[in-house]
Amino acid sequence: MAVNVAAGSIHLMVVEDNDRLRLALGEGLESTGAVRVLHSCSSGEEAFSRALARSPRAILMDVRLAGEMSGIAAAVAVRREFPRMPVVLYSIQDDDAYYRDFRRSGILSHYAYVRKTNYLLPSMIVPLLADAIAGRSFIDPEIEARVQEVWEKDEQSPMALLEPNERAVAVLLAEGLSNAQIAAKLGFRDKRTVARTNGQIYAAWGLNDTASDEKIARTRAAIVMREGRLIGWDAAGKPWIFDARGERIPFQPARV
After folding, report:
1. Which of 17, 12, 26, 20 is nearest to 45 (CA)?
2. Using an 8 Å Cβ cutoff, are 29 and 4 in contact?
3. Does the domain spanning 10-155 belong to CATH 3.40.50.2300?
4. Residue 156 — very low, low, confident or very high, per pLDDT cuts 50/70/90?
C-alpha cells in the first residue's frame, strides 16, 4: 500500500509495555523510512509527561499498559492538551471495560483502533498513522462490533438509569431485604430515605406507570434486577421487552 508521507516526517511516540515488542515496533517503523521514533515508553503516565515535554506528530499505543492509565485514558489526556493528536491504538484485549472506555472517550477523528493480531506489521501501521494525521479515522470491524455490543448492553442495563445510592438500594432490594434492613445496612439516618429511593428506582424503570401497588412495583424491581434488563408490564400484567428492532415482544423469564 503506497503511503504519501515524506521520509522521516512522522515523528512518533511508541507506547508499549512489552520491552521487546516496543523495540521491534520502533525499529520496524523506522526501517520504512517514513517514521522517526521521538519517544518510546511503557506507561500512559510517562507518555503524557513526554508529550508535554516534546509533542510528537502522532502516537502508536497499546490499550493495555503498565501503570494505572490505559492507552485510551492516556490518549484522552494527551488530546486534552493537544486537541486531535493523531493516535493509533491497538490491543489484543477483549474486555468490555476497554470498549466502554473507548465509546465514552469521545474520540471522533484522527485515530485508528485495531486488533494487534490484525494490524501490527510496520507496512500496515504507517498507512494508519498517515490517515490519522490527515484527520481520518478507522476502527477494526471486529472492535467496532464489540463496541456496539457493549453499547447495546449498557443501554439495556437498568443500573445505567440509576444514581449510585439508588444502585446500592436496588441491589439490597433484590436480595429481599426490608426497608429497615436496607436503611441499617447503608447507614441511612432517616428510614424513610429507602422508601423515597425506591420511588426513584420505580420511576426510572417505568414501574410506576403500571404498578400502583408498592409491593407489586417492588417485586417487579427485583425481577428487573435478577434479569439484568429493563422489562415492562402491560395493563393485564403481562411482561414485555424491546427486541433489537425496537419492537415490543413478550418477555420470557430466565429458567433456573
Report:
1. 17
2. no
3. yes
4. low
The pLDDT of residue 244 is 55
H or E, element range at 73 = helix 71-81
Residues 6 or more apart whose CB falls under 8 angstroms from that of 251 comprise: 231, 239, 240, 241
C-alpha 166/C-alpha 169 separation (Å) is 5
What's the per-residue H, E or C state across 90-117?
Answer: EECCCCHHHHHHHHHHCCCCCEEEEEHH
pLDDT per position as a tens digit, 182-193:
999 999 988 799
| Alpha helices per DSSP H over 134-209 | 141-155, 164-174, 179-186, 192-204
Assign 181 to helix, strand or coil.
Answer: helix
What residues does 39 pair with on adjacent strands? 13
Q: What is the mean pLDDT of the chain?
A: 90
CATH code for the structural domain at 158-250: 1.10.10.10
Strand 232-233 versus strand 87-91 pairing type: unpaired
* Cα angle 47-140-59, degrees, rounded to a multiple of 5: 20
pLDDT over 50 (residue 3)? no
pLDDT tens for 118-153 read 888 999 999 999 999 999 999 999 999 999 888 777
Residue spans per domain, the chain: 10-155, 158-250
Residues 6+ apart with CB under 8 A from 218: 173, 198
